[in-house]
């Protein structure tokens, strides 16, 4: 296994990805089978160069090189064509802001994710997870993907806006978000940039859904301004109250709007996808499923889970961590160099694109023995300390590490425990699932049968 501590003089292996075509480079391989193609690259080198059309892009495959990219956020900034296409959707929030402004924004948004506030959001999670787990009919098949998306949309919407407009917000978000996520992804991978301008029905649906989400957020902001409730304990209140320690500045309504849109797009589908994969994996691994049931029965004794139970639901958390390893929702993200720099002994000119793929890292046999096997006990404390530092990155790393990591882990732990307390999720024989590498690494529809326990 690789060690994080390497001598300063270490020799990094560079490679050009095989299979490139004269003009398209590796664009076709990336379009057809991105997961298989990317996961084959660490065998060739620590830093692999590929070409998407005429542009070279770099995939660091060694955890140490990936850390260098993630911690040096000034030189490896978010940028490039993907970010430019995201701006009309997300505005200028945490995901789209440049390095310098990101630091200010992060200082302002971070308090909304403070532990004390997560405890408050957990009340929403408890209620919604309980409602989800009591809504199903015994032995009537459900689409797990659909249910998990509906659940995380309700949790996130109600944690963001705890007003009496919440039911309306939930319905709007559930309708609009999947359309916006799908459209944003289509635009992100369109190399011509022309697709979004064509008079297609899909584009009209996307424009309509985005306009409705924007209106919803504006209404929530107006409603907050018009009332004098003070701190409602929701994310929106924390964003209004935020004051920058360094400058004393606060956020304008437009800035708050952009942060809310960013949180909706970053927080709902990611958590839902990982939960769906967790159910899929449990359905194929009866021993892990039995261990989950045993823990939930012991800790909860038949009652619904509460925030205070989360630390004792250790196996449940390991199940989710392992689902995040095998199917990291953020399977690929990018950085762009702002100046000439050197990575693994290779000179990168300004505006070089660097790909970070947790999926590739998490399935590298040099980092995770038997990477394909679902083994939640990899994350037992005594075994987890053997895992090479920097090789597990479901939430990214450095100053742009996911701000919702604790929120997402808490929500997923409560959801798994609430549902596993009541139901055994039986797979439907013959169901075939292939990971869909889109904005998140989704499973697509996944039908399973809830059987009372
Ligand atoms: C299991 C669920 C989740 C996963 C796997 C996940 C993954 C990630 C990753 C990998 C990044 C870093 C991307 C990069 O470096 O370019 C990120 C950023 C972010 N995530 Fe999450 N996320 C999850 C849940 C959430 C939730 C629940 C929220 C909010 C409620 C959220 C909000 C954000 C935001 C705002 C950012 C940008 C942070 C910044 O740049 O400062 N995420 N997420």
Automatic annotation (TrEMBL):
A family per Pfam: p450
Stored Gene3D superfamilies: Cytochrome P450
Superkingdom, natural source: Bacteria
Organism: Streptomyces javensis
Family: Belongs to the cytochrome P450 family.
PROSITE patterns attached to this UniProt entry: CYTOCHROME_P450
Keyword line: Heme, Iron, Metal-binding, Monooxygenase, Oxidoreductase
UniProt keyword annotation of Transferase present: no
Protein's recorded name: Cytochrome P450
